[in-house]
Amino acid sequence: MTHPSPMGPARSRSGVWEFCGNWYFLGPRAFYARQDLAGETRLELLNCHDTDTGFNLKVPSQRASRLRALCGPLSCLFPLPPAHTTSRTAMTLLSGASGLLQKVSLFTWDACLTLANLVTPNLKVGHVVPQGAPGAGGLWPEYIAPGEGDSRCCCPALNALANHGILPHDGRNIKFTDMTQTVRTSFNFAETFCVFVPSYAADVLHKNYKTDTFDLADLNLHNGIEHDASLTRQDTNYDPDQDKPYLPFINELLASATGKDANGAILTTADTSRYSSKRRAESRATNPEFSLDEFHKIFGSSNSATLLTILGGRVADLEPFLREERIPEGWEPRVRQRMGLTMMAFNRTALGVEMGIKEEPVQAHATVEESGHASAATGLRRR
Ligand code: HEM
């Protein structure tokens, strides 16, 4: 491997590789991302002996997300701020130190919250949503379905918050920090998750987590967080808006629930893995624009994990939540741990879902045009 600098030009097969503004840290090593005109991305190890002192920042394309899979999702939370003339060695030291520090503090904080959950009693049933917050005691603000001009996205939970007016009903000009706050109180995710995911979203949208706002629809950016083979949305190739639930998938998912308890049917980890396997295989076989890298697979399984943890897999609750993006009356998060669902605990469930996904190849016996992409779900057979 050569060790060029991000400041100087380098030739690729289809043109010049350009530094695209993102830095990644893997242990003690610093990498930077370069892209060529064809949008191909590569990661280069920083050579600390290089003496160049400036570079041009380019907006990173979605393909940079592949790099995140390589270096761990946390690394992209802390890209370097734009700088044109800073000494690269100083920059490496600074960015490495601040990036690492933030990563270490987030993980340490999360580990502390996980420990605290072990030694503190759970919140009492009926008291999971804090007093004074919308939804306290199961009393959620009125549900009003989205109307003309309201901004919505591919996330059922954020749409539900907007549908109940907990986030602005028009879904516009939302502060990332407000999203952190409302997700914390409404769903009892731990603070670490509530900072991590919105910060990550801000990063993907090239916005500042602390000061900027976004519209829900901004999150529909394909292969930002949004990805193909979702459980509640058609692929972007078929529905670029991504703002409405796709009922045939949701019905199929909920009908596949095999668990049961006193509250009725329960969607299990194995059920979500099985349905994700099907969605991935079918999308891969029928969608000519299909893409799903390792990073987005993990995001997909994490989304599934929210259904199993925060919603407890209860089909009776999942029906309004996924179909209408409505919080059921009297509902409260099923995670009752005092510090909320930490990333450590959550990742265990997400990993369980991902490990259970066996994407068997499927063969289309009807073209997408013949069958209609939606019914392609049934127009496929296992090889
Ligand atoms: C904290 C801020 C959050 C952000 C920025 C966010 C963002 C997103 C995005 C972009 C997607 C689309 C992924 C795809 O293409 O499938 C998504 C999906 C999803 N999110 Fe969220 N989300 C957040 C919080 C939550 C919470 C708190 C829950 C549950 C309580 C949740 C549940 C889901 C589910 C179930 C999906 C799945 C959809 C599918 O597979 O179709 N999200 N989220």
UniProtKB/TrEMBL annotation:
Swiss-Prot/TrEMBL cofactor(s): heme b
Name of the molecule in the record: Heme haloperoxidase family profile domain-containing protein
Gene Ontology molecular functions: metal ion binding; peroxidase activity
Every Heme haloperoxidase family profile domain range: 139-348
Source organism, top-level taxon: Eukaryota
UniProt KW Metal-binding keyword: yes
InterPro entries per the UniProt record, alphabetical: Chloroperoxidase, Chloroperoxidase-like_sf
PANTHER family attached to this UniProt entry: HEME HALOPEROXIDASE FAMILY PROFILE DOMAIN-CONTAINING PROTEIN, STERIGMATOCYSTIN BIOSYNTHESIS PEROXIDASE STCC-RELATED
Family, per entry: Belongs to the chloroperoxidase family.
Claim: Nucleotide-binding is one of the keywords in the record: no
